[in-house]
Every structure is written in structure tokens, then in C-alpha cells.
Write a structure and sequence with these properties.
Elements lengths: L14 H19 L3 E9 L2 E9 L2 E10 L13 H18 L4 E12 L2 E11 L4
Parallel strand pairs: 3-4
Antiparallel strand pairs: 1-2, 2-3, 4-5
Length: 132
């Protein structure tokens, strides 16, 4: 999801955008409950958007949130392709260099299925390595 508001041309926010924001809200709250401190949401750096940057101890975690209303056809996390992984890695590298940080990093995916009948969150820690 882009940090920009997506509308249908008549000023109304699209259902897909609202679903994405809802998924990011659920993911951020989930991370907080798991002991993470959410540092950034919808961070734009180097032309790349990162959904969540969180911290637990000395570990910085870069999180891509994928939200769907159903997982009937495919799991949401399957949408994080190699191109997206490379962009996240580049953004993390830029973020660390700009801030003069040297710490352990991890790349996670949080898959959210949210609809009126259920909210299912799946956290995939270390979903990919920074050497893609």
C-alpha cells in the first residue's frame, strides 16, 4: 500500500486502500503485543515505501504487510516477490546509512486476512535474507 490516499475519483477512499490500512493497523498492534516497538509506519525512503519498521532489543525489523479479504486463491505473503524484497533491502540499507546505525536487521512479512467474519494474522519472521 502506498502512503498516499487512493480514491476512486469521486473523493471516496477505495475498499482496497481501506483494507490495506486496516491490515497495517492490525499488524502494528500485533507487533506491539509481541514486545516490539513500532518506530515507523509507511516510511518512504529512497522512493521505496516500507510498511513498518519495528525494534525489539537491538534488532531492527523491516515488515511488509500483505492484506487480503480472503486467502482462498493465494496466501497474502505470496505477493512479496523478489523485486519487492530487493527494494526493502535497499531501503533498509539507506535507512541505516542515513542514521549511522550498525545493528542486526531482519525482514519479516505479516500476512493478514481480514473480513467481517475473521481476522487472521500470520507473522513470518526472517521471511527472506538481505542477500537476494
Amino acid at each position: 500500500m502506498s502512503g498516499q490516499r487512493r480514491d476512486k475519483g469521486d473523493g471516496e477512499v477505495s475498499l482496497a486502500y481501506r483494507l490495506g490500512v486496516r491490515g497495517e493497523d492490525l499488524a502494528a498492534e500485533y507487533l506491539r503485543r509481541q514486545g516490539y516497538r513500532v518506530l515507523e509506519r509507511r516510511l518512504r525512503i529512497g522512493g521505496i515505501e516500507i510498511d513498518i519498521v519495528a525494534q525489539r532489543g537491538d534488532l531492527l525489523v523491516w515488515v511488509e504487510v500483505k492484506t487480503r479479504s480472503t486467502d482462498l486463491f493465494a496466501a497474502p505473503q505470496q505477493a512479496v516477490d523478489v523485486k519487492k524484497q530487493r527494494r526493502m533491502i535497499a531501503a533498509a540499507d539507506l535507512y541505516l546509512r542515513e542514521r549511522g546505525l550498525s545493528c542486526e536487521v531482519r525482514f519479516d512479512i505479516i500476512s493478514v486476512v481480514a473480513n467481517p467474519s475473521r481476522e487472521d494474522i500470520r507473522h513470518i519472521e526472517g521471511a527472506f535474507l538481505p542477500f537476494v
